[in-house]
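no rush on this but wanted to send it before i forget. theres a chain ive been looking at and ive put its sequence and its fold in token form underneath. please have a look and point out which stretches look like helix strand or loop to you. thanks a lot i owe you, the record is right below:
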Amino acid sequence: MTRSIEQTGLFQPDAAAPALPAALAPSAHAARRRAKRRWPARLDLLQSASGLFLAVFLVAHMFFVSSILIGHDAFYTVARFFEAGWLFGTPQPWVVSCVVGFVLAVFVGHAWLALRKFPANWRQYRAFAEHRRQLRHSDTGLWWLQLWTGFALFFLGTVHLYGMLVHPELIGPYESADRIWTGTMWPLYLLLLFAVELHGSVGLYRLALKWGWLEGRDPAASRRRLRAVKTAFSVFFVGLGLVTLLAYVQLGIAHADRAGEPYVPTAAKAARG
């Protein structure tokens, strides 16, 4: 005679539940795969955050160095401020080295994260170039511009940051002008100016699109506004950078026969004299 359900023990409280098929059972391997799939998003977020930090630093840095347009004493005051003399009593150039070292670390980290999206070989490069040519999409062209300016910055920016890292005491009206003109660094700074300003403006534009900043009801209108802001950003900061670089070149030419002489502010000259 057929046994009852109670006799089979299927519904007894202490009876073991039937095992799931191996394919349906959760496993540590599946959990690891899910965690691995999250890493590209995490790295992308880190790339966006580091890029935003560098863009903000770029804007601040441009205003700091352009203080030479106000006057030599103005730039001297800004340079000494970042040496934290107001905190330690006397200027400490090593403070500048610490700041530059941190920025350099973020810069290298951002470059490493961005390399994940570069064409890895000639075949990928050709495929993307053909895709860009056929698509003729303006934002794809901006990404292409950002790729090449970023590639240039990896060399140009590293040279500049390394110089500031090891010689933080050589930041001042005469010192900077001598480095740019007598030290023949102006070609590098000219290339660096265009590369960094274009890369930064395109980067901020793409960040705004990616994360929905300043997004209105009409996506097409929002994109047009963002492109106008990006263009204005590039024109303003490239123009400001060119005028500032010209001011340092002119000062370097005038000071060439006394190259290496440190700048003495007006107040200190009056006290001596």
Observations:
- The first helix runs from residue 5 to 8.
- DSSP finds eleven helices and no strands in the chain.
- Residues 63 and 240 are 9 Å apart (CA to CA).
